[in-house]
Design goal:
It contains nine helices and eight strands. The chain is of the alpha/beta class.
Amino acid sequence: MAKGATKLGGVNILLGISGGVAAYKAVEFASKLRAAGAHVKCVMTESACRLVGPKSLEAVTGSVVYTSLWESPEEYSIGHVSLAEWADIVVLAPATANIIGKIANGICDDLLSTVFCACWSKSVLAAPAMNNNMWENPAVRHNVSLLTDRGFEFAGPKTGRLACGSEAIGRMAEPQEILEAVEKIAYRIKGKKR
């Protein structure tokens, strides 16, 4: 790689952030994506906005953050469709049980779930984060299986300290691990375009 070149140079990454406690890691992850050369746009659920301020993500991405189906921060466009078309890779971090269930079952009741319905043909990486009891729930496992069958890739979850204080599986992968998974996807995409 040439000096100054980056692994994600010019790659458009759409980062979806759902309302899990691990949402705070999304700011560091978005910053790492930018440092790797990616263009980053973020979509946040209302619950995610209660945990992390959109302005923090705007500061590290240099881009407006999308939070609602009903408000457009730019010129008129059908937001969920234009965001899906713009993205080369879509990342969901954290991926809560709620958003995994919505995506697996085609439920489109907020901007993030609607974007995922529109970007089903894109390369998608999800980083689950939830309590171990939720992760091990048969319904969640079924939804993860459905998404895996549809081509979604997963980074984690990891075993570690959870928000409830226990040590168990369900912790979101660290931003560096998610970044490395995104770089592998980008490498595959670039190889296909040659």
